[in-house]
TrEMBL record, chain A:
Gene, per the UniProt record: leuC
CDD domains assigned: IPMI
The species this protein was found in: Candidatus Muproteobacteria bacterium RIFCSPHIGHO2_01_FULL_65_16
UniProt xrefs under InterPro entries: 3-IsopropMal_deHydase_lsu, Acnase/IPM_dHydase_lsu_aba_1/3, Acoase/IPM_deHydtase_lsu_aba, Aconitase_4Fe-4S_BS, Aconitase_4Fe-4S_dom, IPM_dehydratase_rel_enz, IPMI_cat
Alphabetized NCBIfam families for the sequence: leuC, PRK05478.1, PRK12466.1
Assembly: Heterodimer of LeuC and LeuD.
Protein name: 3-isopropylmalate dehydratase large subunit
E.C. no: 4.2.1.33
KW Translocase (keyword) present: no
Residues involved in [4Fe-4S] cluster binding: 348, 409, 412
From TrEMBL, chain B:
SUPFAM superfamilies: LeuD/IlvD-like (SSF52016)
Native species: Candidatus Muproteobacteria bacterium RIFCSPHIGHO2_01_FULL_65_16
Pfam family, one: Aconitase_C
Name of protein: 3-isopropylmalate dehydratase small subunit
Protein family membership: Belongs to the LeuD family. LeuD type 1 subfamily.
Gene name of this polypeptide: leuD
Length: 468, 211
């Protein structure tokens, strides 16, 4: 019998029961909750007279709607305010721990989960947010769910699920200087497409993935959903285990030793079989910039906007033409000649301390270009913000002309006041360049934090490797 | 959940690949704490020429006459014909809510994003997968035939065209059973609470740090 993949092991360990057609009742260890996808679930729970099955398995925070400017005045938009207050009330009513808007531990749900040790290796982790795949970086099975499943997880601590297929993406070799986890994952999506992982759980493996820090691995798994996979994951190693030592929700003492021993087994067997395999060479990966309205529309920074005429597939060609029209770009334009209006450094993809350090290293002692109307740094959590301030990074950004904001999802999806005006063009460290994602009519180019910082200084895209 | 068994309905074609859930229902409408009322804002950025905000009178907004759903011949459509990777992006269940609220009960496409596919079933919206060339053919027929309708039979797992051509589709037995009977997932899981308790008791011994 062939060995098991990491995904097989995580799945098998959580099956409560199996239906004849393979559909399973899967146990959920951690449920992360935020204000946007939970109110209807709590309302339904209340209407049915039910209580959360295991209150302590839930952890909540408000991140999508919260303002990133002065919070002393509360939330100006009454609709956003009601949604955040609804989360506060639901958590209070049902006894769920919430890091509210003014708690120093508040932040983007996918940043605070691991930061608190609330996400641990070997867990099943769900949240009503597609970027829940982030938590797979720690050898966990983590995936996004809709509101009906939020209610199901609250009521039963389980979900009805059908197992996905196994896919492995290997990236091997030394990672070139100036190339980051973001560039690696964008290159993967460029290769396999936004539906390349549909129906699969992706395990990222190979020596390049092993070289990445734990935070870099979170960036890679975060965008598994942009490759179509609900779940992305990476085997546990010494770096993973060390990351959790001493975190508030992590086990301690004897329990820590016991857990760490079990976590070391969280990897695919050498003879495990995958339904689909893809391999990339790290040496071939260059800093990436997206040019279109899907994350697969990506080229190296030294490249140019592609020509749809060269695309043989008619449906794809039409998509490229629509994207160029929306993005107001012409085929053949070198990426470096694309000028920007706004810069956004933030989101669950790239708002952790290492991301801010990488951006600050590029910005230090320089000034934001005059054509940039707004350059934002939005830390992923209150604790990331505090750490960055302890290191003086806030000064580096502010001296250069960046705005230093309060934590939240911010301009990744523009549910709060941070957004692009119609026609504005932005270099963004977030995860989606869809039409209108950062504001109706706004144009998004996805890049790494160092590339966004370099673009802020130059006013247009530049190859960050030339700055090293 | 609403029962789904058979439907004969008008088809509207949305001829683009990778239609994401941000396009299906833009983020400003996700601030609602309700499950209903998203229909007027389905495909908001494409449907209207002016920017939309929650609470507006959408009947008074400027309609984009070029957007397919605004064409008179597609008014009252119950079936949406779409391209590859429909519903990609965010996990917002507001996307199937908006499609249902608008009046759609069936989507036909070559492929869907996993979360959207899953969310649709929870709401009685049937996402049918038919292979790419066949979907291409339906797009052609739909464009050429005013009032083009299809018959969907879930029990038989078939889509039948006006000319009598039949396409069979696959669906998980469990999902089919739930849709045909309007079964609610939580109600089903509540039949297995003892098994959940037994799992928890076993797991507490194996991995006590999880509790």
């Amino acid at each position: 019998m062939a060995g098991k993949t990491l995904y097989d092991k995580l799945w098998d360990a959580h099956v409560v029961r199996q239906h004849e057609d393979g559909t399973c009742l899967l146990y959920i260890d951690r449920h992360l909750v935020h204000e946007v996808t939970s109110p209807q679930a709590f309302e339904a729970l209340r209407l049915a007279g039910r209580r959360p099955w295991r209150v302590a398995a839930n952890l909540a925070t408000a991140d999508h709607n919260v303002p990133t400017t002065d919070r002393g005045r509360g939330i100006a938009d009454p609709v956003s305010r009601l949604q955040v207050e609804t989360l506060d009330r639901n958590c209070a009513d049902f006894g769920i721990t919430e890091f509210g808007m003014n708690d120093p531990r508040q932040g983007i749900v996918h940043v605070i989960g691991p930061e608190q040790g609330a996400t641990l290796p070997g867990m099943t982790v769900v949240c009503g947010d597609s970027h829940t795949s982030t938590h797979g970086a720690f050898g966990a099975l983590a995936f996004g769910i809709g509101t009906s499943e939020v209610e199901h997880a609250l009521a039963t601590q389980c979900l009805i699920q059908k197992k996905s297929k196994n896919m492995r993406v290997r990236v091997d070799g030394a990672i070139p200087p100036g190339v980051t986890a973001k560039d690696i994952v964008l290159a993967i999506i460029g290769r396999i497409g936004t539906a390349g992982g549909t129906g699969h759980a992706i395990e990222f493996a190979g020596t390049a993935i092993e070289q990445l820090s734990v935070e870099g691995r979170m960036t890679v798994c975060n965008m598994a959903i942009e490759a179509g996979a609900r779940a992305g994951m990476i085997a546990v190693d010494a770096k993973t285990i060390e990351y959790f030592r001493g975190r508030p929700y992590a086990p301690r003492g004897e329990l820590w030793d016991h857990a760490a021993k079990a976590w070391r087994e969280l990897k695919s067997d050498p003879d495990a079989k995958f339904d689909k395999e893809v391999a990339l060479n790290a040496a071939d990966i260059k800093p990436q910039v997206t040019w279109g309205t899907s994350p697969e529309m990506v080229v190296p920074v030294g490249g140019a906007v592609p020509d749809p005429i060269k695309e043989p597939d008619v449906v794809k060609r039409a998509g490229m033409q629509q994207a160029l029209k929306y993005m107001d770009l012409r085929p053949g334009t070198p990426m470096r000649e694309i000028y920007l209006d706004k810069i956004f450094i933030g989101s669950c993809t790239n708002a952790r301390i290492e991301d801010l350090r990488a951006a600050a290293a590029v910005v230090r002692g320089k000034k934001v270009a005059r054509n940039i109307r707004l350059a934002l740094v939005v830390p992923g959590s209150g604790l990331v913000k505090q750490q960055a301030e302890n290191e003086g990074l806030d000064r580096v950004f502010k001296d250069a002309g960046f705005e230093w904001r309060e934590p939240g999802c911010s301009m990744c999806l523009a549910m709060n006041a941070d957004r692009l005006a119609p026609g504005e063009r932005c270099a963004s460290t977030s995860n989606r360049n869809f039409e209108g994602r950062q504001g109706a009519g706004g144009r998004t180019h996805l890049v790494s934090p160092a590339m966004a910082a370099a673009a802020a200084i130059a006013g247009h895209f530049v190859d960050v490797r030339e700055l090293y | 959940m609403k029962i789904f068994d058979k439907l004969n309905g008008l088809v509207a074609p949305l001829d683009r690949a990778n239609v994401d859930t941000d396009a299906i229902i833009p983020k400003q409408y996700l601030k609602s704490i309700k499950r209903t009322g998203f229909g007027p804002n389905l495909f908001d950025d494409w449907r209207y020429l002016d920017p939309g905000e929650p609470g507006m009178d959408h009947g008074r907004r400027r309609i984009n006459p070029d957007f397919v759903l605004n064409q008179p011949r597609y008014q009252g459509a119950r079936i949406l014909l779409a391209r590859d990777n429909f519903g990609c992006g965010s996990s917002r269940e507001h996307a199937p809510w908006a499609l249902m609220d608008y009046g759609f009960r069936v989507i036909i496409a070559p492929s869907y994003a996993d979360i959207f596919y899953n969310n649709s079933f929870k709401n009685g919206l049937l996402p049918i997968v038919i292979e790419r060339d066949a979907v291409g053919r339906l797009f052609q027929e739909c464009a050429a035939t005013p009032g083009y309708g299809l018959t969907v039979d879930l029990a038989a797992q078939t889509v039948t065209t006006p000319s009598g051509m039949v396409f069979r589709f696959e669906i998980d037995a469990f999902r089919k059973h739930c849709l045909l009977n309007g079964l609610d997932d939580i109600g089903l899981t509540f039949q297995h609470l003892d098994e959940i308790r037994a799992y928890e008791a076993r797991r507490k011994k194996e991995a006590p740090w999880l509790f």
